[in-house]
Each structure stands twice: as C-alpha cells, then as structure tokens.
Amino acid sequence: MIPWNSTTLSPLTFTLLGIPGLEASHIWISIPLCALYVFAHLGNFTILLIIKTERSLHTPMYFFLSMLAINDICMTLTTLPTMLRVFWFNANKIHVDACYIQMYFLHGFSLIESSVLLAMALDRFVAICNPLRYTSILTSPVINKIGVAIVIRCSVLLIPLPFLLKRLSFCKNNVLSHSFCFHPDILKLVCADTRINSIYGLFVLVFTAGIDSACIALSYVRILMTVLSIASQERLKAFNTCVSHICAVLIFYIPMMGLSVVHRFGKNAPPVIYFLMGNIYLLIPPVLNPIIYSIKTNQIQRVLLRIFNLKSDQI
C-alpha cells in the first residue's frame, strides 16, 4: 500500500470532518443541524404548496420564488446524507467518485441559486420600471425558458471540474475540512500544479455568480432611480416587494464570500471556523428564505393566516 506521505494519482476515499476533538459530542451537535435541515425543508415545501394551491399567486414573481424554494430543497438534500453519516455514525469515508459527484451538485445548486436571484431581480426591475408591459414580457413560456437556461448554463459550466480533478495527483493526507465535498477544499490536498483548476474555477465563479451579482446591483440602481424620479403609489408598493429579495441576495452572497475567504486566507483557522462557515453557507439561505418571504410578502401572509384560522376553527 502506498503511504499517504507520498504522491498518488488519486485517493480511493476522502475523509470528511465534523468538528475535530468533539467527536464524542457529534450526536448532540447534530440535533441543531438536523433541526435546521427540517426547518429548511418544511419552510420551502410550505412555500411551494401555498404557491401551487393559491391561484392568485400564479404570477412571475412567485414562479421564480418556487424555483428558489426547489433549489434550496435540492441543495440541502445534496449534503444531508454525508452530514448524517459523519455526525450520527462516525462514518467519515467517502469514495472519490461519490465526492466529486456531491461536489458537482453542491456547486451546481449554489450557482443556480445565484441565477434564480438574478431572474427575480429582473422580475422586480420589469415590475417597477415597466409595469404596463410586465405581463407581456414575463409570460409563462419566457419564465420556462429562463429556468431551462439557468439549469443548462450552470450544469454545463461545471462538467469539466470533476474531470480536471481526476487528472491530478494527491499527497499528504486525504482529510477534508467539512462534512461535504467542496472544490477549494479538495484542491488543498493536491500536490500537483493546480493552476488550470484554479483558473477554470475562478472563470466559472465570475461567469455565473460574479456576473449575476453585478447585474442584480445594476438592476437595483435602475429601480431606485425610477422610484425616486416618479414615486407613484403603485411603484412604492412594488418596491416594497423588493425588500424580501434584497434580504435573500444578502443571505446568499455574504456566506458564500465568507466561506471563500476562509478557504483562501484561513489556512491556520481552527476547524470550528470551517464547520461554522460551511454550515452557514449551506443552511442559512434555505432556512431564512421562506421566513423572509412569509414575513415580507402580504399575499403569502394572508394565505398562511387563512390556513391557521381554518385549523383553529376546526379544533
């Protein structure tokens, strides 16, 4: 057997981490983690159910919100199996191919979320800056094409990543920093030249999240200019719907940038920092998005109140 302090073409398995030194407490640590997964799924399934059953919500804004909810569910399901294995059963080995597959879907759903947030910004831009043509521009076929384009763009761009990793040789050890497979984390274990991987990874990030965030910022500059120049009652009402979207943008991009900074500059950071930043990046957006839209969106509030009132009357 080749020792891990030498160079190998590829490890058979990677070792996932919970919190080193607290393995005895992993069961207890898993309780709040599992609670967050449950809240994320319940919240997003509730949003989907409300939008599906309430015909008044069959509008472009809520169709995009449905895409966001579906993506959040898929993103949490991508990492749930390995998290449970690590924290419940201390089964921290993952086959290299399974790791690359999880990495592909994790980054894929993350980039899809960025693109959906851009589509939601486009929806708010049209609703406020060109309200008379809102329904004629964002028709059902157009929304479907946007959804398909988002999936194709993100999935195709990420296809080379696993194959670029396959050609590399690994050394030192096979221990990752999270309970899931993350591309920058895997690159840390490589002892070959990773410039191609790093450049392509940066290209994918700039071409997706970078362009998306810039376009979102530009759309809100135009929205603010429109609202301030002609502050009609309808435009102010429409701008109020932007608050929940702005919150969703912030709770997605801030953890993403935080995790990237930790992997880029936090080489000597304690393991708990990787644990916290990784789980904030994965769980905070899916947990908070349904809460934000339930609190800040009057239509969803009315449906929820009607459901709760109906249940209380039945009791």
Quick gist of this model?
The chain is mainly alpha-helical. It has twelve helices and two strands. The longest helix is centred in the last third of the chain and has 35 residues.
Structure class:
mainly alpha
* CATH architecture type: Up-down Bundle
Low-confidence stretches: 1-6
Instruction: Give the radius of gyration.
Output: 22 Å
Based on CA inertia axes, which overall geometry fits? globular
Number of helical stretches of at least 4 residues: 12
Largest sheet: 2 strands, antiparallel
User: How many domains is the backbone divided into?
Assistant: 1
Number of beta strands: 2
Task: Output the helix-strand order.
Answer: EHHEHHHHHHHHHH
CATH topology: Rhopdopsin 7-helix transmembrane proteins
Question: Can you tag this structure with a few keywords?
Answer:
GPCR_Rhodpsn_7TM; 315 residues; two-stranded antiparallel sheet; olfactory receptor activity; single chain; mainly alpha
Report on the structure:
By secondary structure, the chain is mainly alpha-helical. The chain has a single domain (about 15-305), classed as Rhopdopsin 7-helix transmembrane proteins (Up-down Bundle). Helices cover about 75% and strands about 0% of the residues. The protein is built from twelve helices and two strands. It has helices at about 25-55, 60-90, 95-130, 135, 140-160, 160-165, 185, 195-230, 235-240, 240-265, 270-295, 300-315; strands spanning about 15, 95. A two-stranded antiparallel ribbon has the order 1-2. Helix 2 runs antiparallel to helix 3 (about 95-130) and helix 3 packs parallel to helix 8 (about 195-230). The chain is globular and about 65 Å long. The protein starts with 12 loop residues before the first strand and ends with a helix. The model is unreliable at about 1-5 (pLDDT under 50).
